[in-house]
Amino acid sequence: MAVRNQRALPSDRSTSASGRRGTPDFLFLFLTFLLVCFGFAFVFSASMALNANTPWPFAFKQAINITVGIFCMLVCMNIDYRKFQKWIKPLFISVVLLLLATPVIGASLNNARSWIKLGFFTLQPTELAKLMVILYLAGLLSRKGEGIRDFKTGFIPPLAVIGFISALIMLQPDFGSTAILCACALVMIFVGGARMRHMFLLGLAGACLASLFAAVYLLIGGEGNYRIDRFTTFLDPFSDANDKGYQIVQALYAFGHGGTFGAGFGQSIQKLHYLPLPYNDFIFPVIGEELGFIGTSIFLLVYLAFLWRGLIIALRSKETFGMLTGVGIISLIGIQAFINMGGVTNTIPMTGVTLPLISYGGTSIVVTLMSLGILLSISRDYNKPEKEKAAEKKKNARLHRRTLTMTEMQTALPGQRRFTGPIRQKDPFVKGSSSCFVLSAGL
């Protein structure tokens, strides 16, 4: 679904000059709040047994994170999204500086140095980088227009930006976030109008480089690396169920114990120190165990409805920048959700990423809600013209009811006074007007 024609720039739109904006997409807003509340409930359920003194530590922190995130979402929702196109350069430079500083001053956790401790708050610059790359690429692609179809001047510059940011993230290292960012950026480039031939060549080159990297890594002694172990255990997790395949095996046990109808909310067994991080990366198996197949299916349908509604908002935008920004935000959330759910169900190799809007997290939930606020700002832009059209249509209908109405009328020729079709005579105004009209036709 590539966009071949350049859309109107912000300065070309007559609707933006009025200063008034429409209402946000309330269905999307409702689905967002529904998923956030659902995630908070399961963060509480998954973490209640991890602390012997109180069941509230993670839930209390998550409540604070959600409050901050909703505040940021409401702020971004009330800012015209076109302003982010003007602010993107200083914001992008700030994120690049944070990514450069993270491997040096960042805190190490789970074999990665991806967090910067700021007193009582821990910042993850990678999450900010994802949103900034989306905004930067949306601005770049919207300015290029049809120029994206040229390989040297249109296709290569966005790839250079993606490669630079991906290299900074891999210094931490964070392979999961790098893969999500690259996949999201490629979706935006494709939707922005890139040639299929260029996309195919890029995919072929990426596959060759990945194979070469894996081969060299194994030759220099990377057999004991946990990333290689994740790929090998993906093929047969039960071959080493007590060591390398322990996480996947316990997640599969959780889904099996849930059965059709589930064990009930709060009744999960695998969260009792069997599943690692049941409130974070492995929260989906807890959902599957407590809600069962039916409940999990309903949850997935709601999540898909949320993604579908967000995609509709993006595609309804009348500007290229708004459309690409919306597509980037929704594809980022959808790809990350697929990688998380696919990993814990052993559909794809396991990668340590959170489930957006559901898993416990500080920077992740705040940045995700902030990005959804930008998407809601885009929905406010297209809702205004639709509202005005509806009001104008309603006004025309009222005027039409006050005038002469006929189901069929034949214009009278000189010397003829014949009309085909009945004249509505219920309204006194219509009756008087129709009598005058017949009299004047006879004259």
Automatic annotation (TrEMBL):
This is Probable peptidoglycan glycosyltransferase FtsW. It is a multi-pass membrane protein. Its EC number is 2.4.99.28. The gene is ftsW_1. It is an enzyme of class 2 (transferase). NCBIfam families: ftsW. The keyword Transport does not apply. InterPro entries: FtsW, FtsW/RodA. It comes from Paenibacillus konkukensis.
